[in-house]
Amino acid sequence: MNTRLMALTGVAMLGSLYAVARVLQILPGKLPIAGVIALHVLPLLVFALIHGAMFYGRRGILIFFVISFIVGNVFENLGVATGFPFGRFYYTDAMGPKLFQVPILAGLAYAWMGYLSWTLGRVILGNLRSPLVGTRVITLPLVAAFIMIAWDLANDPVWANIDRLWVWQEGGAYFGVPLTNFLGLYLVYYLVHQSFAIYLRGRFPAANPLPAGYWRWAIIFYALCAAGGIIVVLPKRVSAVVFDPMGTPWNVSAITGACALVSAFVMGAFAVIAWVRLSDQTSGINRL
User: Fold this and answer.
1) What is the pLDDT of residues 179-229, one digit of tens each?
2) C-alpha–C-alpha distance, residues 217 and 23, integer Å
3) How far is Cα 156 from Cα 268, in angstroms, rounded to an integer?
4) 15-44: b or e for each residue (b if 16 or more CB lie within 10 Å)?
5) Alpha-carbon distances, residue 153 vs 27, 39, 235 (angstroms)
6) Which of 25, 154, 160, 191 would suit a FRET pair with 180, their CA atoms being 20 to 30 Å apart?
């Protein structure tokens, strides 16, 4: 088996594991929820590590992961303790072991989704073969944070109010999730990506241009995350209504339907735009 085939096989296996996790999410009881979340996080974490190392080197991608994990966990724990910057909430025990008040898997999610969002941002802005300089040092983190926040808009109401991975103590306008959650998350995502941009400023990426297929895989994995938010509409939930801690009733079909729409028309839009921009930029690059 040649190297190319081995790489494609490995990527396909990681994507398949993630897809299985999303299916298991809508089939409660088939696997403990902590196991389902681990299958959400770990395959894409491995993909991001390998994919990122090919362009930024081992040191570069490890620095991104360290930044993501530290910044994410600091703000998540601060949020649980004080309510800033997301609003008052706490994690249940459903996601497994915690680092202080935050599940380890939640902290790791900042790294893999942060990496996918950063990569799509880089493709959309058209900066694949040159160092990060000038206004791109600011604009790329801003765009990457928007791409990443779409993932939360597409999933947080389901994870909080249906799967009960965490609890918003005062409810919120977006199907029981406070709007401050998304403002706070955007701030944190921006800080993660801005920190990495400062590290990369002026540094040259991989010496040789990587094939179009390299970038395409990151877009496919982001699109796969979007598809996972769409299939939540499929199962018939036992309960037609859920209640947030304030006693406000929320229609489950409305929650899943809205999340599916965001997945399709916001996350999906970012994926399509990135795909088209990639085609425009790589016409002269060898294709995988």
Assistant:
1) 999 999 999 999 999 999 999 998 877 656 788 889 999 999 999 999 999
2) 21
3) 17
4) bebbbebbebbbeeeebebbebbbbbbbbb
5) 22, 21, 20
6) 25
pLDDT at 226: 95
Q: What type of residue sits at position 47?
A: F
Q: Note whether 189 and 148 are within 8 A (CB).
A: yes
User: What pTM was computed for the model?
Assistant: 0.93
Amino acid at 103: P
What's residue 287's pLDDT?
45
- Say how many Å lie between the first and final Cα of the chain, rounded: 16
Q: Which two tokens stand for residue 17?
A: 């594991």
> Phi/psi at 70 (nearest 5 deg)?
-70, -50
Beta-carbon contacts of residue 48 (< 8 Å; ≥ 6 apart): 61, 65, 111, 112, 115, 116
